[in-house]
Amino acid sequence: MAVLFSRIKGMFFLLFLPCFCFGQPAPPLLRFSIFLDPSNMVYLRWDHDEQEMMLFELQVHTTGWVAFGFSPHGELPGSDIVIGGVFPNGSIYFSVS
């Protein structure tokens, strides 16, 4: 699933949640990656195209939810935040604020 952020022109975010389904398409080839924490539990991959469209993949070992944000100055006020996860019954939620 992809969400267009209203305040960040041309930026897309992909949240990949665990899915044990057969016949799923292969994930996109993303050239850049980094672990965001010292325990290697938060892994970010990204890439961009000629039109400066950015694609992100976030892989997280979590207890059921994850949040990811973008800010022009690295601060919470004015940032775009994506929150997603899995409810105990297995249904998935995804929210952008």
TrEMBL record:
Keyword list, A-Z: Signal
Any one GO CC term of the record: extracellular space
All copies of domain DOMON, residue ranges: 40-97
TM spans (from-to): none
Molecular function in Gene Ontology: copper ion binding; dopamine beta-monooxygenase activity
InterPro entries xrefs: DBH-like, DOH_DOMON, DOMON_domain
GO biological process assignments: dopamine catabolic process; norepinephrine biosynthetic process; octopamine biosynthetic process
Protein name: MOXD2 protein
